[in-house]
């Protein structure tokens, strides 16, 4: 046993060393975070600025650490080349299922999370018990398969009985495990008695009921306010579900007929439909007519179809999908099956998922071609927020060894999938294109070298693929440049607008036995970044092992192993360039989880199919268990979205849906909003829709345009055209993207919703165009001046409202973030008014003047200084104030400063206030974020020091008023 452990550790050395180097690098570089400041190149007041985060440095920590870890693996692999090429004798071989699937993943999951999956654990116990009754591994393996199929067959029978017998629940949820276990025990007794003669047949038989699970997609009853309300599905929707049920039954019949003829040689026993159906029920979306009020994401996934096909806007020229064309599929289904109603989003998403899982399940089935495909289907589960479908499909299709042997067809398929992927979701599309580029070049090399092109012209598949490629190639040639421009525009401000904000805070479930919270947070920070990097590290390790094995290099680079490993390294790295940046402090991991799960899946397949060629059997089993562990943690613990845990699929078989009191039953026709549809909607969301409807009726005429900030699904609900290419100002924060978006506007929108300081350039554009604010039932709308005047009269009243009633602006750490980036931001200023502190008249209360510019706090509750300006400052022109203060700042000390101002016309007022946090005295304050400042001729400013310790000294070193150059070019 000692020899086995030693040999495993010897093989693990390069990877262990690389992981260790990366972990140490993260820990060391993170110590310097407080010494770094984020560099701003534009006025973007989003999460990075508001939180004072050091996003660029935090990303540098990840990438430098990843590179060090990767290089360490490569260097150590070359040093240990001889050991990696040794063949170790294994006196004791680990069982794939016992150790790889159960014991190791369950044990480490328990250590990390202090939780255990009950059904997973029971399966493990049953399999271990089978070891006492069955000596042959294959028979134990098949009995475990049978147990899983009995479980899913029970779910299928429940789905059927729930639909046939509506008054009584024949199979309650809490009886499913018991029924599964009893059936298995009875069948096992019968099989053992007959020496397992009919085991293979029973595996085939128990797959027949599985298509009936899809009957749960026809559940249309809702428990609401002690009533049972029924909302009918459209005939087209029901026809689609019935089609899939019949389709999968036919597949089962065909496969059964083919396999039963030669049952002893039938491989795999698992049918294609079983793989697909398990993927569907695990990646389940409740097809219910319920709206949770998320107008942003639901709009993202449905509005593009509405704008292009219903409102006839030209794709890329008049309207663009800001995150690719992936919503087209859902939008098409929603339009076809439900006439595009908003409340049909979830049923449409359910059909979309069924289609995707059918395609991806087929690719996986033909990639593996053994019964192990069942375990892959059980392992593969995604959070609902998932953009990896095309990447996943491309990876599984292009990894197929049979397709790889047909090099020209592989190249054609690679081109097709790359084009589709890029337009589907650009970042993952680039990952597909570049990830497969190295292998595409090798395939091209061998096509030319071996003159395969001379034989290919007779192949029908070659011409079919060529014809298939015509439209995608034409489409890509026409629109690629436009897409690149869009991506470059949005990505130019993405780091500052959407970047990671601050050090990760450990989840409650993580290593509860560590009491010291700071230590726990540091370990968590390393753990999260290692988890993201692991697909790259493990792929690098196996690529080194693969290339260092004794064989000709030309033989190695033509094999599927080479494609899988090179693709994984490149594709995950490209995806990380965006997904790592978007992780917030609480590790909202849904962007990363999907990628990790996909590439852990392909690594499991790689190890299962090819592992024994390059590493010892026991090492292979341990690696498979690690990949399962990482996939499980990513899916079940690292995302805020609910996922279906193994053994909890029964919860997806619904008799009815429970709807709480926070929702309202509606029919869009009752509100004269047919696009809303029928169903339940969150009450606040309904109120927002009704108020917008009233405003539209009151001030917007036919065919006029409206601009929704965050509630962009409203464009579709009210059947309106988007006024700009990018449908929401929320998407454009920097100067250049804002200018491009505004220039696409054919007419000024009648009103704009929720316009706030985070979109400073759009906000200033609205002020420049004299948009007026109207407060209607607690909601604020920016109305075009001519329409305001037409309906409400004098526009001066609107200006007065802005000055007198605009709320105070809490900038949080924005001024601190900008102030520590003056070197770059000063270049953006058009004019600067500087004042010598000694020449200014400064008064105060609750303070002691030590010198003209140095003060001491004497009153913790009321201390401020008034700076009387020597000249009037035009607030509309000078929209930024730079303050430089010197004081004894302590580490992690936050000081709050409140700024008020006075004009000849208006005295200081509590709502005309800008609030900011000060950490080191360098403050660039965007005073223009308060509308009243832009209408003020400022004569005096007040700096109010909130709850500052008595005897704190502050030295006022600089005061400068700055004018942002919003007409600058070249950003």
Task: Describe the protein's architecture and organization.
With 971 residues, this protein is of the alpha+beta class. Among the domains are: 683-808, no CATH class; 810-964, Galactose-binding lectin (Jelly Rolls). Helices cover 53% and strands 12% of the residues. It contains 38 helices and 21 strands. It has a 6-stranded mixed β-sheet. A hairpin with a 4-residue loop joins strand 13 (847-849) and strand 14. The longest helix has 32 residues, at 460-491. The chain is globular and about 100 Å long. The relative contact order is 0.10. The mean pLDDT is 90. Keywords: Membrane, Transmembrane, Transmembrane helix. The chain crosses the membrane at residues 12-33, 60-79, 91-112, 118-134, 141-158, 170-190, 202-219, 239-256, 268-285, 319-338, 460-477, 523-548, 560-581, 593-611, 618-635.
Question: What are the defining features of this structure?
Answer:
971 residues; alpha+beta; Jelly Rolls; six-stranded mixed sheet; six-stranded antiparallel sheet; 38 helices; 21 strands
Q: Radius of gyration, Cα only, in angstroms?
A: 32 Å
CATH topology of the domain at 810-964: Jelly Rolls
Oligomeric organization of the protein chains: single chain
Our measurement of the CA-to-CA distance between the termini, rounded to an integer number of angstroms, reads 64 Å
Q: Percent of residues in beta strands?
A: 5-15%
Structural class: alpha+beta
- Describe the sheet with the most strands: 6 strands, mixed
Anisotropy-based shape: globular
CATH level-two architecture of the domain at 810-964:
Sandwich
Specify the number of helices. 38
